[in-house]
Write a structure and sequence with these properties.
By secondary structure, this protein is an alpha/beta fold. It is 54% helix and 8% strand.
Length: 461
């Protein structure tokens, strides 16, 4: 666990130094944490509208506030990334304990941990930009372990922490409640967990997010093809099931399922009740119109992966004793092979080329560093997406083409990704329009121009 955390933290540090993170999403998280550390809990700048708002207007993940004291001690996005990686590594503990209980073999339990840490999707999610939902990976595993071992108090604590990682997490916690009632026979606790989980998600979607955003969740737009809202999806499932079915059986959805299943060699199918806990998040992902939701490199699998590994531990325990260690060895071997092929580790066959769509040559990175050094700390700024990961430690932080109160603008001409209400897309024409406007404006002066990187300053600054 320590070695895994250290090595991935070094990778994350390198990725940050070479600007392989972006404003979406690392910059957004950093600004919310920075604001919380400065007494404005979860305040952020909406990259699409340019308005100052609360993080709760888009996602309800108050666990971010817990990072504020850490930021005050070690103020760096790399610190936040290292903490996320370390927290994900903690998932090894409940998985190991589950392995000991069900496999009755220490070597087999260790092999399950090896598979967990080798799993490329676990590793990629851990070094992805800070996402509160990623912290739910070990928390879900702890929930299952504590329930199985009859430790209700620790389960309640972990369940409460799960809820603080996202507005949807209540649904997945409710799934654990169903499993608790039906598989473990703890009906009262199970029903209570279901009620709390469903109640949390209902409250977040229909009270908290509308209160802070002034309307319904902007992310409903990602589901416009299947109803556009929770109620709309349910209605369309009844009135037009063919459309919903086609939405979840596209080629990308099938590939996504296979990629998620690969690192555990499919042995999670030996424990269907636990494996089924991954279905709600899988449905949320494949129903969305946003391609990233079915990319296993990203954080959208945070409520899928822990259940697959927990199911693998329980499922292997249902084999004959002499076959359990062989099964665990097979899972570890497949996971290691997947890591070598698509993991984030240096030298992996396919993983190293991911998430690097823009120029990151040493000369280009040095030019970016010089450009960023011109922007004063705390000065209101607008920028294109990628450089935003290095500019988030301020109150007013806009995304091009929004300007708002910005006194500085940092633009990578090659970075044409522009945010939308719930996602973003490459819009080179929109960026060209912005550049022409700012170049022709008497209010702005270009103070840097190298390697397709431009920095502008308001003339009254």
């Amino acid at each position: 666990m320590v070695g895994w955390t250290a090595s991935l933290s070094l990778i994350a540090r390198d990725r940050y130094a070479n600007l392989r993170y972006a404003r979406y999403d690392l910059g957004n998280m950093v600004q919310a944490v920075w604001s919380s550390a400065h007494g404005r809990l979860l305040e952020s700048t909406n990259g699409f509208t340019g308005e100052q708002t609360s993080r709760l207007a888009s996602h309800v993940d108050p666990i971010l506030v817990a990072f504020a004291p850490l930021w005050m001690l070690a103020p760096s996005p790399v610190t936040l990334e290292a903490v996320q990686i370390g927290v994900v590594a903690l998932g090894s503990l409940p998985l190991y304990w589950l392995g000991l209980r069900h496999l009755e073999s220490r070597p087999a339990a260790v092999l399950l941990v090896v598979a967990y840490l080798a799993c490329p999707w676990i590793a990629w999610t851990a070094i992805d930009a800070l996402h509160p939902v990623t912290l739910a990976i070990p928390l879900f595993l702890f929930c299952i372990w504590f329930l199985e071992s009859g430790r209700i108090g620790p389960f309640v604590i972990c369940g409460a922490l799960v809820l603080t990682t996202g507005e949807l997490m209540g649904l997945f916690l409710a799934g654990i409640g169903v499993w608790c009632a039906l598989s473990l026979g703890r009906r009262f606790l199970g029903v209570a967990t279901v009620l709390v989980g469903v109640g949390w998600t209902f409250l977040m979607f229909f009270v908290v997010i509308p209160h802070f955003s002034g309307g319904e969740s902007a992310f409903y737009g990602a589901y416009s093809g299947v109803g556009g809202s929770p109620a709309g999806i349910v209605k369309m499932t009844v009135t037009d099931p063919v459309t919903v079915l086609s939405a979840v059986t596209e080629q990308r959805d099938v590939v996504y399922l296979l990629l998620l299943a690969l690192p555990t060699a499919g042995v999670f199918l030996l424990a269907p009740p636990i494996a089924a806990l991954a279905l709600p998040q899988f449905a949320v992902n494949v129903l969305a119109d946003v391609p990233g939701t079915t990319d296993p490199h990203e954080h959208y699998g945070a409520a899928i992966l822990p259940f697959l590994f927990a199911a693998a531990a329980v499922g292997l325990g249902r084999l004959a004793p002499r076959r359990r260690e062989r099964g665990a060895l097979m899972v570890a071997t497949v996971a290691i092979a997947a890591a070598v092929t698509v993991g984030p580790w240096q030298g992996s066959l396919l993983g190293a080329s991911n998430w690097d769509p823009l120029n990151t040559s040493p000369e280009y990175v040095r030019a970016l560093d010089r450009a960023l050094a011109l922007v004063p700390d705390g000065a209101p700024v607008t920028s294109t997406n990628r450089v935003g990961s290095h500019l988030a430690e301020r109150r007013y932080f806009y995304s091009v083409p929004a300007i708002g109160r910005a006194k500085w603008a940092v633009v990578e001409v090659s970075d044409t990704w522009i945010p939308t209400a719930y996602s973003g897309e490459a819009r080179p024409a929109r960026l060209d329009t912005f550049l022409r406007s700012i170049d022709q404006s008497s209010d702005w002066k270009k103070v840097f121009g190298e390697e397709g990187i431009r920095v502008y300053r308001r003339v009254d600054t």
